[in-house]
Amino acid sequence: MKKFLNEPEAFVDEMLEGIYAAHPQQLTYVADDKRCLVSVARQPGKVGLATGGGSGHLPLFLGYVGRGMLDGCAVGGVFQSPSAQQMFEVTKAIDQGAGVLYIYGNYTGDILNFDMATELAEMENIRVLSVVGNDDVASSVQGEEHKRRGVAGIFFVYKAAGAAAEEGMSLDEVTRVADKARLATRTMGVALSSCIVPEVGHATFSIGEREMEIGMGIHGEPGIRRGPLLPADAVVDEMLKPILAELQLGQGSEVAVLVNGLGGTPQEELYVMYRRIHQVLGGQGVQVAQVHVGEFATAMEMAGASISLIKLDDELKRLITAPADTPFFRQHPQAGR
Amino acid sequence: MKKFLNEPEAFVDEMLEGIYAAHPQQLTYVADDKRCLVSVARQPGKVGLATGGGSGHLPLFLGYVGRGMLDGCAVGGVFQSPSAQQMFEVTKAIDQGAGVLYIYGNYTGDILNFDMATELAEMENIRVLSVVGNDDVASSVQGEEHKRRGVAGIFFVYKAAGAAAEEGMSLDEVTRVADKARLATRTMGVALSSCIVPEVGHATFSIGEREMEIGMGIHGEPGIRRGPLLPADAVVDEMLKPILAELQLGQGSEVAVLVNGLGGTPQEELYVMYRRIHQVLGGQGVQVAQVHVGEFATAMEMAGASISLIKLDDELKRLITAPADTPFFRQHPQAGR
Amino acid sequence: MDRIGKPELAGLFQRLREVFSQQREALIALDGKVGDSDLGITMNKGFIAAHEAVLAQLAAGGTDGIGKPLQMAGMAIAKAAPSTMGTLTATGFMRGGKALLAAEAIGTAELAAFWRAYHDGVVERGKAKPGDKTLVDVLGPLLQSLEASAAAGLPLREALVQAEAVAAQALEATKTMTAQHGKAAVFREKSVGLQDAGATVGHLIIQAMRDHVVQAHEGQS
Amino acid sequence: MDRIGKPELAGLFQRLREVFSQQREALIALDGKVGDSDLGITMNKGFIAAHEAVLAQLAAGGTDGIGKPLQMAGMAIAKAAPSTMGTLTATGFMRGGKALLAAEAIGTAELAAFWRAYHDGVVERGKAKPGDKTLVDVLGPLLQSLEASAAAGLPLREALVQAEAVAAQALEATKTMTAQHGKAAVFREKSVGLQDAGATVGHLIIQAMRDHVVQAHEGQS
Ligand SMILES: Nc1ncnc2c1ncn2[C@@H]1O[C@H](COP(=O)(O)OP(=O)(O)O)[C@@H](O)[C@H]1O
Ligand SMILES: Nc1ncnc2c1ncn2[C@@H]1O[C@H](COP(=O)(O)OP(=O)(O)O)[C@@H](O)[C@H]1O
Ligand SMILES: [Mg+2]
Ligand SMILES: [Mg+2]
Ligand SMILES: [Mg+2]
Ligand SMILES: [Mg+2]
């Protein structure tokens, strides 16, 4: 296991200690529990936005806590849900009387715990709504979207909802926007190598030296097909196909694009992929309003990438391009692509 | 070779096509040569800052071209110097009459070519000075600093010089600042796995499943010692030791810290390392004015990390914390740590 | 032993802790086939926490019924193991404990009440139906067996021996099912032939209860 | 053949191109030991570009001396292979070509003049001293041999045969040296015993020149 760590059991807490030490002006925690992470800044009257999920996906989830995006995050063990109690502590801390929206990925463990947390919050008269990201087109067929995993595309949901809350929208309005962003977003991933969970100590799955798996999830969930690693352009074409079909993109549609490395893939390769995405979108007359290339939702050291597209209307475009300043994502005012 | 690429020979140019497609409002090229990359924005009268070097190190080198940092970058093949002609084309394009400063790493190929480019520029009456980054303490002993490699610490030199040029300083002043930043910066790296140069197609070097190499360079140059992978804290302690000694840090010193992933190491692990750095610095009474944790100078998919420290005075602190907006690095105004 | 008294919970949870420590690797492997390999880790953690919570609750003394330490065990599991099975198991113990708040000890009737509340809590939270290849496919038959035993007035020991046998059979039957929930669901057909990991945990718990009572019984006789 | 005329440069550069194509893997391996494994790639690219530049220059006709296509070869290498050895080799051909701008063909005297300028250009740019385990350690002896042959009035063929032998010996001698420049320098003691990669390139070039002339000679006789 080629990792920089001390005791595997201490990995997540030591990572969090590093996070708090590096970003003391932006991040802190509540309930005397490092895993109950909240933004230092409080904006009175603003709808609170919370997320949560397993560790091992940085910048997800906690990296987007900050100005213009989220207010808090319950942090789980590697690939593990945080507890309902932790979510509840975060909820109490960030509620400014305007209610709290949970935005998280469609994983059973997270759902069970966020549901429990919602019940706890309601007992304290905090209004809580949820939007559950399910952007991964590879994880279930059309018509069964409720079974799909949430992956990197949740970034767009955070961004849109965060900007909406920043604009002063109500909980219902922020939820409407988050849900609109969710419904407009699709992601497809591809993996080339496995990741290693520190406490497990060996690769989650094995894959041949010249193989790829299209559609694999960010915990190593199986994809659509495994086969020989194809040239980058062919990989991109295969990944884009269902996304384009489902979003019904065509002449004049406008999108934002996220090319996401899973942790072990160099950024150079992500740009080789974006080159092809740009060609394909251009060929179909699709306008690209904004592009992000880098690591946004990883799977530890997994080699691989995902492509997310969000179809924009004027409102989503405004919110997606609004400024943000979080430890892992900064966008200056008037950031186009 | 687990890479997203088409023809290995086309890798760098296709990456650049992706870069230009993703950042059209910020980056463009001159001389009809994609490898002569310049900022779209020109600031009349400003000292021009150029860099250059091999590909495979993103965000280095081109990623720091943008507001508050660099104006242009000559882009070489993977781990290869760009040509003198390309450097010269960039120089011509970015010169605003105030002269141009070259900031690049201490590698023979780059030096030979930047020297040739300087001669070409002088023939066209463009004044050119150079600052050659040599922050890697592992690459030669004290007293032989001129033999040291330039690695991630060059980020601080770019940042300080870029802010100085932005403030309107003259070429000599910007050069003074860049040189001051260079002299105040030290880096130490550690590698856990090799990288693969696309055109070579296999690992540059081999290293055991439970080994690390302290002091390895970003092209796989040999380090100080190879041995069993130690716990993260022990690795950090070993890396910090020569840096702290050389910078003569002590009670009341102020530094900025860069924890840099080499490409294949998850950000979680970098924060585990930062946790320890913070402990050690705190224990010695050293103030941390700013922290960056992420990928700043990579070696393709190499697993590993480097730690850079820059010792700050008031001027360097002001320049390091000034805003910047480049495709790979953004810092809002008043960015502390 | 015909009833599990409050002090004996210490031994029962000690046993559960040992079982999930011993089964750690086996559950990792089982969950690894169509899941994320965490089940052994989370259950191990969960039952360490549960054991400690029960000990703390017993040490605190007090006149609460036997349900209270069971609730505390559930809350400890919720905190220590917030995975799918951790949260469902936590829900099970919290609900089961709540059903026994007024009880002094666990006989066959109390055991049936415990597992009724456990089962209903899991179904309410997880929304799985019988045949979906989950924990519920062990909990359902197990519960029916216990309720029948309670109705027939069977002693605790016999009730547990029967319930364990039914659970083992129900567990075996999960092999023929296709996963509909959680991480296994994406494997669909691939999950057929494999024993469900969560159902295995359900069986291990009832097995530990049986062994605890049987062994205590043998110690007595 | 006692002189290399302008049209024969096509054949010479064709040969150089072939040599560096054949030696690609060997040079990668050699540079890999104490360097970055790129030497085979860069030299291969460099001499493909040089060959094409020479062909283009010859095709353009004109009354320039033989130095011009050599300069063009150097410029092409600078562009195609901006590594240490690429840039030094480019500098060598540009300077060597400049020294022969007025010459019609290459006899022994011209060859010595070419390599004098080549050597001096490399030293000026790279600042390596004899014994530093670089290309210079082949260029020095090679040049001395050629200048002695020119002074003695030896025919081109003999001069090249001697120069190649001297270069081969000088190359062998680099094994005993400790690298002081470039990537190999950090390996220090480890570099001892290994033949210097850049010096190997120097030897390959003079060897190709010798083979070209010897073979043309054999073809004639
Ligand atoms: N909705 C559900 N209701 C009941 N049990 C479920 C449900 N989803 C999954 N399970 C059970 O959980 C088991 C997996 O548990 P666990 O490894 O904790 O899941 P995860 O790692 O996905 O959080 C499955 O084998 C199944 O028995
Ligand atoms: N300063 C120098 N002067 C002359 N030759 C040098 C110098 N530095 C390195 N060399 C030669 O360059 C060779 C390495 O060439 P190359 O592989 O192109 O270097 P790099 O890959 O580092 O750019 C060495 O074997 C040595 O002969
Ligand atoms: Mg899990
Ligand atoms: Mg090189
Ligand atoms: Mg699991
Ligand atoms: Mg080399």
UniProtKB/TrEMBL annotation, chains A, B:
Family matches, as InterPro entries: DhaK_dom, Dihydroxyacetone_Kinase
Entry GO MF terms: kinase activity
Transferase listed as a keyword: yes
Record has Kinase as a keyword: yes
Domain DhaK: 7-329
Domain of life, per lineage: Bacteria
Keyword tags: Kinase, Transferase
PANTHER family found in the cross-reference section: TRIOKINASE/FMN CYCLASE, TRIOKINASE_FMN CYCLASE
Protein name: Dihydroxyacetone kinase subunit DhaK
Organism: Aquincola tertiaricarbonis
UniProtKB/TrEMBL annotation, chains C, D:
Keyword Kinase assigned: yes
Pfam families listed in its UniProt record: Dak2
InterPro entries, A to Z: DhaL_dom (IPR004007), DhaL_dom_sf (IPR036117), Dihydroxyacetone_Kinase (IPR050861)
SMART domains registered for this protein in UniProt: Dak2
Signal peptide span: none
KW Transferase (keyword) present: yes
Residue ranges of domain DhaL in the record: 7-211
Keywords: Kinase, Transferase
PANTHER family, alphabetized: TRIOKINASE/FMN CYCLASE (PTHR28629), TRIOKINASE_FMN CYCLASE (PTHR28629:SF4)
Listed name of the protein: DAK2 domain-containing protein
